[in-house]
Amino acid sequence: MVSGPITACCAIVASFVAGWKRGIRVFCATLTIIAAGIYWPDAISVSAELSRPAEYELKAAFLYNFIKFTEWPAQALGKQEEPFVIGVLGRDPFGAALDKLIEGETIHSKSIVARRFPRMDEAAANSHVLFISSSEESQLPTILKLVDRQGVLTVSEIESFAQRGGVINLKKENNKIVFEINIEAAKRAGLTMNAQLLKLAKIVKGIS
Amino acid sequence: MLSFHNLSIKHKLTWLGVLTSASALILACAAFVAYDVKNFYDDMVRSAATQAKIIGYNSAATILFIDPRSASETLAALSTEPDIIAAGIYTRDGKLFASYAATRSSSTAATSLPKALTLRADGHRFEKRYLELWQQIIFERKVIGTVVIQTSLDAMRVRLLQYIAIALLVLLISTLGSIAVSLWFQRRISRPILDLAATAKSVTDDKDFSVRARAESRDEIGQLVETFNEMLARIQEQNQELQQSRDELEQRVIERTAQLENANKELESFSYSVSHDLRAPLRSIDGFSQAILEDYSDKLDAEGQADLRRVRAATQRMGQLIDDMLDLSRVTRAKITREQIDLSALMRALGAELQKVEPERKIDFTVAPGLTADGDPRLLRIALENLLRNAWKFTGKHPTAKIEFGITQNNGNSAYFVRDDGAGFDMAYANKLFGAFQRLHAMTEFNGTGVGLATVQRIISRHGGRVWAEGEVEKGAIFYFTL
Questions:
Q1: What's the mean per-residue pLDDT of chain B?
Q2: Measured between CB atoms, which of A7, A14, A68 is closest to B126?
Q3: Distance from CA of A66 to the nearest CA of B (A)
Q4: B8: phi then psi, degrees, rounded to nearest 5
Q5: What is the pLDDT of residue A133?
Q6: Where do the domains of chain B lie?
Q7: pLDDT digits (tens, 9 = 90+) for B122-141
Q8: Quick one: closest CA in B to A14, which residue?
Q9: What is the mean pLDDT of chain A?
Q10: A160 within domain boundaries
C-alpha cells in the first residue's frame, strides 16, 4: 500500500542520479607504441610460442616500462637538456622496435633516446638504463664494476644476471616474460624501485 | 457504505484529524526516504569510484608488465567489501585482463561481467540487482585500461525495506496517536453539539420547556447553546402567560356562572312569590263573584249573570296560569334524585288515565315494551304526561287517532319519541314550540297555557338530555328526547 509510491519516488530519484556525468574524454592523438606493443592480444591470452620479433617487442616495452617504476638520483639524471639514454651494449636484439617505442616519449621532462654502444666504458658513462646483450656475457664482471654506484639501471637476459650483481634480469618462463630484481644491486646503484614493480618481480639476492 | 455526508459529526471530526495527520506523515516519510535513498545511491557510486581508482592505481604495473595473476591478487583485496559482487580489469583494447567475483554469488557475477569492454569514459549505470561502474586506469597521463566494479544493490534493498518498515511503524503509531488526539478533540467539539441535539429532541418529545442545554465553551457552539436556551426560556414564558390567561378566563367563567345562577335564582324566587301572592286576590275575586251569583241571582238580570260568569272563568284561567308557572318554577328548582324507571309501564299507566277521562276517544295507543331510563321518577312522570297529554289534545279533532311511544336511533344516539297523527305544526315555528307561554294554535282551537312543552324541556335539560320536534300541518308531530 505505502511501498508503491515510495518505490516510485526512489526510482525517479535514482534516474536523476544515474546517467553519464562526465563528458567523453578525448584520447591522445598519438597512440603510443608501448600500449600497442603491450596489449598485443596474442601476447596476453594466446599461449602459442612467442615469435622472436614479438618477444623482443615485448622485452623492449618492459625495458621502457622499468623506467617508469624506477627513481634515479638527481645527479645521475644530469642536466635538464641532456636526454635520457637507454643504452644497448653489444649485439642489439630489439632493432627498430625500441626506437619506435620511445619516439617522442619523455621522462622527467627529458626526451628519451636509445643508443647502441660497442664499448663498455662509453656505455657505462652515458647510459641511464643499460641493456647488456647476451653477447657480452664474458665481460659481465667488468661491465658491472664500471657501472657500480653510477646510478645505472642494468638489465640483461644473461642467465643469473641479477644474482651476479645486475639489477633486473629478463627471463622467459612458460612462454611469458618475467623478471628478477636484485634489490641490493639497485640500492648500490642509488636507484629506488617502485613497490608495484617489486611486487611483480622475483626478488633475488646476489652471490658475492 | 455510508457516505461522509451522513456520518455523525463525531466521526467526521475523528476522520478529519486522522486523515490529515496520516497524509502529512506519508508525504514526509516518502520525502525522507527518497532523499536518503538518493544520498545512499550517491555514496554508493562515490565509494565504488574510489575503489576503482585505487585498484586502477595499484594494477597499473600489472598491466604494463602483463601480469594478470598479480592483477587478480589486487582485485582479490575487494573481498573485504561485501557489497562488491564482481570486478574486472580490462586492457585498453577492451579485453578482460583480470577478474574478481565475490564467492557467495560468483556464478551470477561471472556471467554478468562484460566479456569485452569498448573503450569509454568513466561512468556508471544501475542494473536491476547491481550498480556497474567503470573507471579508466591512467598511468603517466595515458589510458592503459579500465576497471569495472559491480556493487550489489541488496544493501539498498534492505535499507529500503527497513525504511518502509520504519515508515509503516511510525505511520501506525502516529495514526493511533492521532486517533487518540482526534477522539479527545472531537469530544470537546461534538459533545456540546450532541448534548444540544439530545436536549432539543427531549424538548420536542416531552414538551418540557424547562430543561436547559449545558454550555461548556465560549465558542460558536457555546453561543448556539445559549441562544437555544434563551429560545426555550422565551417559549416557557409565553406558555406561562397562556396558562395564566386561561386560568383567569376560567375563573371569570366560574364567577359569571355564579352571578348568572344567582340572578336566575332571584328571578325564580321573585316569580314564585309573585305567582303565590297573585293567587290570594284571585281567590277573593272568584269567591266573591260566586257569592254574588248565588246570593244575588234574583237581583241580577241574565246579562249581568253572564258577565259575572265570564269574570269567574277568567279568574279560574288566571289561577291555572299561575299554577302552571309555579309548576314550571318548581321543576326548575326541584332536586333531581336518579333511579331506574320503567318508561313503558309509566307510559301505559298515563295512557289508561287519559282514556278514563275521555272514554269516547278512539285512540290506537302503542307502547314499545321494556324501555327503561335512569332519571328522577317524579319529574320524568311530569315530562311524559305533558308529552302524552299534548298528543291526546292535538288529535282531538280527528275521529280516530294513533299515538306511539318508542325508541329510535338518531345520529348514533338512541332517542325516545312520542308520535301522533294529529294537527301537527309548521316546521317554520319549530324553534318556538318549547318557549313558555308560546302557542301555535288559537285558544279556541286547543285550550292550554303554553307552559307544558316548556316544562318538558326544563326537565329533559336538567337530566342532561335534549328535546326536539318534527311535524307537518294536519299530518302529525313527533317529539324526540334523550336522557
A1: 86
A2: A14
A3: 9
A4: -65, 155
A5: 94
A6: 4-169, 336-481
A7: 889 888 888 999 999 999 88
A8: B38
A9: 78
A10: yes
- Do the beta carbons of residue A120 and residue A143 sit within 8 Å? yes
Asked if A176 lies within 8 A of B144 by C-beta distance, the reply is no
Fold of the CATH domain B4-169: Beta-Lactamase (3.30.450)
Second CATH level (architecture) for the domain B336-481: 2-Layer Sandwich (3.30)
A24 touches chain B (CB under 8 A): yes
Residues B84, B76 contacting (CB under 8 angstroms): no
Query: Shortest CB distance from B30 goes to which of A5, A18, A34?
Result: A5
Instruction: Please give the order of strands across the beta sheet that includes A110-117.
Output: A106-107, A110-117, A84-89, A129-132, A153-156, A168-173, A176-182, A202-204
Mutation target to probe the A interface, by most A beta carbons within 10 A, among B66, B125, B168 is: B66
Confidence class for position B119, pLDDT limits 50, 70, 90: low
> In sequence order, what are the residues at sequence separation of 6 or more whose Cβ sits closer than 8 angstroms to the Cβ of residue B355?
B361, B363, B365
| Residue at B58: amino acid letter | N
| In chain A, residues 162-181 whose CB comes closer than 8 Å to chain B | 176-177, 179
Determine the residue of chain A that is closest to B23 in CA distance.
A2
- Is B58 within 8 Å of A196 when comparing Cβ atoms? yes
- State the residue range of the domain holding A190: 22-204
Asked if residues B477 and B424 have their Cβ atoms less than 8 Å apart, the reply is: yes
Confirm whether A11 is domain-assigned.
Answer: no
Check if B4-169 and B336-481 are the same fold.
no
Between CA B61 and CA A197 the distance in angstroms is 6
Contact B394, B376 (CB under 8 A): no
How wide is the angle at C-alpha A163 spanned by C-alphas A158 and A166, nearest 5°? 65
Cell of B424: 301537527
Please indicate, yes or no, if residue A197 is contained in any of the structural domains.
yes
With CB atoms and an 8 Å threshold, state whether B34 touches A23.
no
Stated as kind and residue range, the H or E segment containing A98 is helix A96-102
- Cβ within 8 Å, pair A22-B63: no
Q: Does B94 touch chain A (CB under 8 A)?
A: no
pLDDT per residue over A119-151, tens digit each? 999 999 999 999 999 999 999 999 999 998 889
Do residues B122 and B136 lie in contact, with contact meaning Cβ atoms separated by under 8 Å?
A: yes
Q: Which one of A9, A14, A35 has the shortest CB-CB distance to B41?
A: A14
Number of domains chain A contains: 1
Q: CB of A29 within 8 Å of any CB in chain B?
A: no
DSSP designation for B130: E
Tell whether A14 is covered by a domain: no
B319 touches chain A (CB under 8 A): no
For A1, the 3-state DSSP assignment is: coil
CATH number of the domain that A189 lies in?
3.40.50.2300
CB B62 within 8 Å of CB B74: yes
| H or E segment to which residue A132 belongs | strand A129-132
More confident residue, B165 or B441: B165
> In this complex, is the C-beta atom of B53 within 8 Å of any C-beta atom belonging to chain A?
no
CB-based contact B62 A200, cutoff 8 Å: yes
**Residue B73: which of B61, B357, B83 has the closest Cα?**
B61
The answer to whether the CB atoms of B30 and A196 lie below 8 A apart is: no
Asked if B61 lies within 8 A of A32 by C-beta distance, the reply is no
Which among A68, A70, A71, A43 has a CA at the least distance from the CA of A177?
A43
Q: Is the pLDDT of residue A32 over 60?
A: no
* pLDDT-above-70 percentage for chain A: 74
Per residue in B3-59, pLDDT tens? 777 888 888 888 888 888 889 989 998 998 899 889 988 999 999 999 999 999 999
